[in-house]
Amino acid sequence: MSEEHSERSVDQATAVALWHALLRDEAALLEHPGSHHKVLLTQAYALHRDQVIDSDDLSDLLEQADGALAYAVEAHFDRELGE
Fold first, then answer.
1. Which of 4, 69, 75, 79 is deepest in the core (most CB within 10 A)?
2. C-alpha to C-alpha distance for 37 and 61, rounded to whole angstroms
3. Threshold 0.70, pTM exceeds
4. Using CA atoms, how far apart are residues 45 and 58, in angstroms rounded to an integer?
5. E-assigned strands of the chain?
6. 58: Cβ–Cβ under 8 A, 6 or more apart, which residues?
7. Nearest to 44 by CA among 77, 72, 15
8. Are 46 and 18 in contact (CB under 8 A)?
9. Could you say which residues of the chain have pLDDT below 70?
10. Using one digit for the tens of pLDDT, what is the confidence trace for 21-39?
11. Structural domain of residue 55, as residue ranges?
C-alpha cells in the first residue's frame, strides 16, 4: 500500500509539473494567448476533477493562468506600440 501511495504521489507531481511546463511555454502563450489560456484552464480543472489537486491548488493554478494571459495581452500591446 505504501508503494501504491508513493507511485500515486509521483503521478500527481508529474501531472502538476506538466501543467507548470505548459504555463512556462512562452512561445505558445504569445502566439495564441486565448487558446493557450483555455488549455491551461481545461487542464487545471481536469487536475481538480481527478482529485490530483484540491480547491486551493485549483485557485492558484487559475490565478497563474489568468496572470499569463494578462502578460500575453500586455506584450501584444507593447509590440503594437513598438515598445
1. 69
2. 11
3. yes
4. 7
5. none
6. 44, 45, 47, 48
7. 15
8. no
9. 1-8, 10, 83
10. 999 999 999 999 999 999 9
11. 2-80
